Amino acid sequence: MIPVSDLLVDVADDTGESTTAGDSGEEITVADRHHPIVVWHVTGANNLDPEYGDAGAGPGHGDGELTTAEATAVIEDLAAYGVAAIRFTGGEPLLRDDLEPLIERATDAGLRTKLSTNGTLLTDERAESLVAAGLDDIDVTIDGLPDHHDELYGREGAFDDALDGIQAAQDAGLDPGVRFTLTEANTADMEELVDLLALQGVERFRFHHLEYSSQDEEVIDLDVDHEAQRRAVRRVCDITLDAHDRGHDVETLLDGNYADTGYVYQYAREELSEDRAAAIRDRLEADGGDPAGERIADIDYQGNVHLTPYWQEYSLGNVRDRPFSAIWEDESNPLLAKLRDRKEYVPDRCPDCEYYAMCRGGSRHRALAAEGDVWARDPQCYLTDEEIGLDADGSPSSAD
């Protein structure tokens, strides 16, 4: 997660850490492979039919879903291991009727709890029960203006229901953020959507690049090209500075494409100052780039442990057989070991890239999906050889 507003607006101290405690930006900074953020798909059920993300298992419980007792045991292990936070997601997590007891158990164990939802089931009563359980943060997924959002999620009125869910969360005392995934259909909606949601009091926006698997060729077709990605990232930066210039304390984050780190650094050099850009570079290098296999982990509703929330095709093990802590510490798994020491495995120009320390080769899962090779180039890397300090032949620039 790249905390754009922290980087562009807030003053960095000598350690490179922002003076503002952002949402996921702070977590990614403090988490390490011994204390990852755990994304937990607590159910495979979904009341909508999204075009991307988890297909879900219909409106009911998914086959093999962890029981309340099993889920509670997982929480106890995560707390003892010292994970940085748990983000409950799905499917649609609000379809799980024991969600509040699980959040309460995690809260009592000292864990920070977050929830990602499509918002359509977030009534006043449900929002109040989540607050009573101790939920810390909530994000509602909105992927475009009404027509685009409803089409992506397969139901007319889904956008309006999500707005109602945001209002319910606000009325209950939560500060909901919005998660927006960039696709070919919705990038033009981004600025208007931010303005619309800001009027409703939303102050946190998480912009995600599209993730996909080799099993979802239609989802790959939804992705935007490199120039559209560049424009979208620049708009996020522009929106951030413009909002703060107008006195709005908006928090913006980018996720899913660590080529964005180099672009945000270049943007700061152009629009701010060399000193601010240097502080941003220090912070991004300290954050450590793509977190797969280290600072983020995933557990699905059947208990399988994955390298990221999107890498569902590959399991490191199952919490029904071994505790998460044992699975995550087991570097006899060759892929896990390589991801934690990846520089000699990442593709061609990555090791000599000027921004390797803040990117670390980008998404290995997306490379596998697009190219069939986990160590191929991330297809969403839009930075040119010149921008990353390489000559036309791909060698390090003589100027360096």
Descriptive terms for the model:
400 residues; alpha/beta; ten-stranded mixed β-sheet; 16 helices; 10 strands; 11% strand; globular
Provide a quick synopsis of the model.
This protein is of the alpha/beta class and 400 residues long.
Word description of this protein:
The chain has 400 residues and is α/β, with parallel strands linked by helices. The chain is built from 16 helices and ten strands. It has helices at 4-8, 24-30, 68-81, 99-108, 124-133, 146-153, 158-171, 190-199, 217-220, 226-245, 259-271, 274-287, 324-329, 334-339, 356-359, 364-371; strands spanning 37-41, 85-89, 113-117, 137-141, 177-181, 204-208, 251-255, 296-299, 304-306, 317-318. It has a ten-stranded mixed β-sheet, with helices on both faces. Residues 11-29 have low confidence and may be disordered.
How are the secondary structure elements laid out?
Layout: H1 4-8, H2 24-30, E1 37-41, H3 68-81, E2 85-89, H4 99-108, E3 113-117, H5 124-133, E4 137-141, H6 146-153, H7 158-171, E5 177-181, H8 190-199, E6 204-208, H9 217-220, H10 226-245, E7 251-255, H11 259-271, H12 274-287, E8 296-299, E9 304-306, E10 317-318, H13 324-329, H14 334-339, H15 356-359, H16 364-371
Parallel strand pairs: 1-2, 1-8, 2-3, 3-4, 4-5, 5-6, 6-7
Antiparallel strand pairs: 8-9, 9-10
Helix pairs in contact: 4-5, 5-7, 10-11, 11-12
* Distance separating the two termini: 29 Å
On the 0 to 100 scale, the average pLDDT is 90
Give the overall shape, derived from the CA principal axes: globular
The largest sheet has its strands arranged as: 7-6-5-4-3-2-1-8-9-10
- Report Rg: 20 Å
